[in-house]
Design brief:
Elements: E1 3-6, H1 19-29, H2 38-54, H3 64-81, H4 90-123, E2 127-132, H5 138-144, E3 153-156, H6 157-160, H7 168-177, E4 184-188, H8 191-200, E5 204-208, E6 225-227
Parallel strand pairs: 1-2, 1-4, 2-3, 4-5, 5-6
Helix pairs in contact: 1-4, 2-3, 3-4
Length: 237
């Protein structure tokens, strides 16, 4: 049976826009943080990601909004350490954290509701497996956004102990599908973390081409298909 293996972050919740750029939009819209440069925000963003990856800050019951608040708190702390937010007090910092978190959560909610339409369509004909680098609360997030019912299994990095770009996490998805590699169709927005590793183990791949962390000239002949909207999947399936 053909099975779709879906990435989550970026693929289903931002329409293939790297999450950094969603945060960048949010900071730019807030008058207290609009002055932050790209280099400064990138440094704060990386600090947040590394902190969450190395410490048990996110718990399984955290909603996506909970996750965002914790992530933005770390980002704001990093910006304070760089002495970039010295002009605002603690109350204003809390306001910034709430504002940025709310903005990003609204983007994720709206996008996942749109993504649900293609998941609903595919679920009628295919098995769907989630394969994601996430923080241990993906089941809670999928429940929150009413996506959980579309997936037959969830392979989450924080749970299985393997992270992309290691192809082994995609192999775990294939194993969960109970089929062979060639019958699995990987859908992801990251060329390096989704498409190349999945291709290396013989899966079909659909690259959701959007705005990655850094611009690169990727080989677009490698993926089985290249899309710029999830609904493009209907052209072939």
């Amino acid at each position: 049976m053909q099975t779709f293996l879906f990435d989550y972050g970026g693929t289903l919740d931002t329409s293939a826009i790297h999450w950094y750029y969603i945060f960048k939009q949010a900071y730019a819209k807030n008058p207290l943080t609009a002055h932050i440069t790209d280099a400064q925000l990138r440094q704060a963003y990386v600090t947040g990601e590394r902190t969450l990856a190395s410490k048990r800050i996110i718990v399984p019951t955290d909603t996506f909004h909970d996750l965002l608040q914790k992530k933005v708190t770390i980002q704001v702390s990093a910006l304070n350490e760089m002495q970039i937010l010295g002009h605002i007090d603690a109350s204003q910092c809390n306001s910034v954290i709430a504002n940025i978190s709310d903005y990003c959560n609204n983007i994720a909610y709206q996008t996942t509701q749109n993504s649900a339409q293609i998941l609903k369509y595919l679920k009628q004909h295919y098995q769907l497996i989630m394969v994601s680098n996430f923080y241990g609360n993906l089941t809670t997030v999928l429940n929150e956004y009413k996506l959980i019912s579309y997936f037959d299994d969830i392979i989450e990095s924080a749970v299985v102990g393997v992270r992309k770009p290691d192809p082994q996490i995609w192999a775990l998805g294939v194993k969960a599908a109970g089929t062979d590699n060639k019958s699995c169709i990987v859908v992801g927005d990251s060329y390096n973390k989704d498409i190349q590793p999945a291709d290396s183990i013989g899966c079909q791949t659909i690259w959701f081409k959007g705005k990655e962390w850094q611009a690169n000239n990727f080989d677009e002949t490698l993926p089985t298909h290249v899309i710029t909207s999830l609904s493009d999947i209907k052209k072939w399936y």
